Amino acid sequence: MMNFVHVSDTHLGASNFKLKKREDDFLDSFKQVVDYCIKEKPDFIIHSGDLFDKGKPGNKVLLFTVKQLIKLKEKGIPLLITPGSHDVSVDGTLLTILEKVGLLTNVSKPENYVKGKNHVLMKGEEAGGAVIYGLPGRRANIKEVYESIKPEPNDKFKIFMFHHITTNIKDTEFFADIPLSSLPKGMDYYAGGHWHEHESFSYQGKPVVYPGSTEYGDTRSMERHKPRGFIHYKNGEPEFIELNTRGVVVKRVDCNNLTPEEATSKCLDSLSKEGGDSLIVLKLKGVLSSGRRNMIDTSLIKKQAVSNDYLYCNVRLSGLKNPSEKKINTNSKGVNEIEQEHLRAKGYSEPEVKLARQLINLLGNDYTPSELPKALEKAGELIDN
Amino acid sequence: MVVGRVIGGSAGDKIIIRVKSNSDIDIGDILIVENNGVKYYIKVVNTLINSLLPNQFIEDIAGQKLEHDMDLKVFDKKDRFYRICQAKILKVMKEDGFYPARSIPHYFSEVRRANSSEFKFLNNREGVSIGSLRLGMQVLKNVNVKLPAKELISHHVLVSAATGKGKSNFAKVFVKGLLSIDNVSSVVIDPHNEYYGAKNIKGLRDFRNKRVIYLTPKPGNYPGSEKLMIYAEDLMPGDFREVIRASGPQSQAMDLAYRVYKNQWLKQLLVEKNISEVEQDMKSRVQRITIASLKRKLNHVMNFNPKTLEGLIFSLKKRSETNLFDKIKRGVHDGKIIIIDTSLVSNLVERLIAGSIVRRLFYLYSQTKQLNPEKFRSLPELMILFEEAPRVLGKNVLEKGSNIFARIAREGRKFKVGLCAITQMPSLLPQEILSQMNTKVILGLPSPSDRVAIINSSAQDINDESIEIQMMDQGEALITSPFINFPLPVKIHFFDELIKNNKSSDLNIGIS
């Protein structure tokens, strides 16, 4: 029976909020995968791309990666990878160097694609009784590439690694690359990468699995907070193994009808006394009763979060509206009316609204640089009067 | 081969070289001086003759030859009469790369010609091949100059040259080169229908590459050729604002019409409703004269047949196919090279088409970066290529109000969107825009004002190259960029030759 681990999108070298500890988190997730493999002894590991976050990672990240790969090599667990979009720099991929020193196998090296008259013969690499094919995260002519490839026939358990998003996955918007039907037929396991959330479905009765990334790459993914992990395929079934990633707390703070000071205070109250070194994302909602949302003291909230033992606090104000942004029904209204209503909603008096209208009419025109001083002079007169 | 010896100079200015008697040194030659373990790359910017004899004697000898036809033989002539050249230091190469020159070679250091291998750094593996290195009069055909396309694109490229010097040829060579680079995309606004190719014009269609999409009002049977048709229901008031020079009230009337009629606003305004009905629908918030002049302006741009409700480009009919803008967004995401043929439409319509496409693409990139950073990173670098840049970026245009092209020039690099602007007259562009165009491809520019504009805004000092720029022949270019080590003199590939030498449009799959 096949026994292998499938991991993807480890993005070693990535970070969030420019925090060194977050960079360490990405490395730690990968270490957890390696340690799991050393303990569970799968026959091989496949990686569906984006081992690194940048084509040329820093020395620290590279040294860490080499140490982990040496651990695998010493335990006789081969790692096979197809380069992702982030593994490539202007002068090729670092994976080639790691392959040259025997730490991994790049299944997508150029010699594995033999161009024929009407198609490209895709050769695989053998490991643990399986043959592993792959397509790297290139984007150019992607549909034509999928149409042209034909896997070299083989009787063994066939795995196809790819670094593209299939259109059947929800929420991909227009970022999906290929329809599911583009995948080469006749494989026993389809190992996807590039999509950062765990997904699995079937294609022609065989599993198509995206393990997802091993850490949260941005605040959006933290908010969605789908678990991060990898796949252990054994006994004919893919099992999702969840990684122990840093805690992420996403809290909605209802600031409706609060002043900025009250909202700041509510945010401070929403912080737990013991943050446990986790990340916290505060999503502020509602409409403030007065002031502006930029009057909320985010730096105080962040400082308090750190002193409460959170690693970092991200305060998101995009869902919070200023009092003037109460919804105005714009249907069938002229621009002048909408602007006046908007100004009244902000609490301006009638003479002020009238002055604002005069200024908008005066300054809302396109002026050439030579005309502009005159217009500004007129505006000054209006204000003085 | 030793061609001279250093006899003076300063690091901040030029070094002076005495030239060996039998060596041919031209302005533009790049030479090498090795001294104290470092290698100086120097470029000849001037040559002159000199002598050890006092001027009085030289004048005397010349007089004797002229007036008495005397055949005077000068003792040790080679030693006493010689050439001097002035050269500027381009960069200093140490073990780990290039550095600015902070030192100068010593007296009598040997000056020699560079080997081809000393330019191998130009053969950037993932770059776009644009031509061969040109040293003075000589073209080193075995030194292939490749530009780092991705960096160049998002930091904007300006291609400037007088008519006939090879602007369009360069642009076609560059766009063709993008076909072999992964994760880049380009939208080419083509007012002369020369990028895709046509009868008697070679173009990208000759490469039969499926990365090329050609949108034209008159599609043919070529691969990637599709009909350029924009449905009115997909256009927004903002698409017209910069084009029809709408007054304040007209602009507000468009906004109001969009709110009242939704995406049917153009159809209702132009066909379905008369002025009184529109006035009524807008609850008399807009004056009749404003509605009338707005209708006239919009009709002038849209130019459709009132019976068929279609024009060459625009249609008021209900759309039954994919939105053109979505098709282009999809193509950009997939790394396609999208050529928009605007050769059959007026300048006004071209600006409407280009502006509406470019605005949507810029917002796609800027919003994705803000809302979905992970996905933003997977978007390809995007290059917007357009000819006759002063039409949208000229001083006189921008004085009347900014536009999406100027915004991209200022902000685009944060969002991986870059411009490739082509112009005959860079002096018409404001200094602010010129400075944003970090890479400049300079072909022959005889006009002093254009040369000054380019030289003053270049990423590298090319003050000494003014004469070279003036005299460059067709296809000869000088390229300045923060992404190359020094200003590169290049003989640009001839596009038609690339087609002849094109083997096939092989799919490039593997990565090493």
Summarize the entry for a quick read.
The complex is a heterodimer of chains A (385) and B (512). Chain A is α/β, with parallel strands linked by helices and 385 residues long.
Structure description:
Chain A has 385 residues and is of the alpha/beta class. Helices cover 30% and strands 24% of the residues of chain A. Chain A folds into 3 domains: 240 residues, Metallo-dependent phosphatases (Purple Acid Phosphatase, chain A, domain 2); 77 residues, no CATH class; 57 residues, no CATH class. Chain A contains 10 helices and 21 strands. In chain A, strand 7 and strand 8 form a beta hairpin. In chain A, helix 1 packs parallel to helix 2, helix 8 packs across helix 9 and helix 9 packs antiparallel against helix 10. Chain A is elongated and about 90 Å long. In chain A, 38% of the residues are buried. Chain B folds into 3 domains: 113 residues, no CATH class; 291 residues, P-loop containing nucleotide triphosphate hydrolases (Rossmann fold, 3-Layer(aba) Sandwich); 70 residues. In chain B, helix 6 crosses helix 7 and helix 6 packs across helix 9. The model of chain B has no long low-confidence stretch (mean pLDDT 90). Chains A and B meet through strand 4, strand 5, helix 4 and helix 8 of A and helix 6, helix 10 and helix 12 of B.
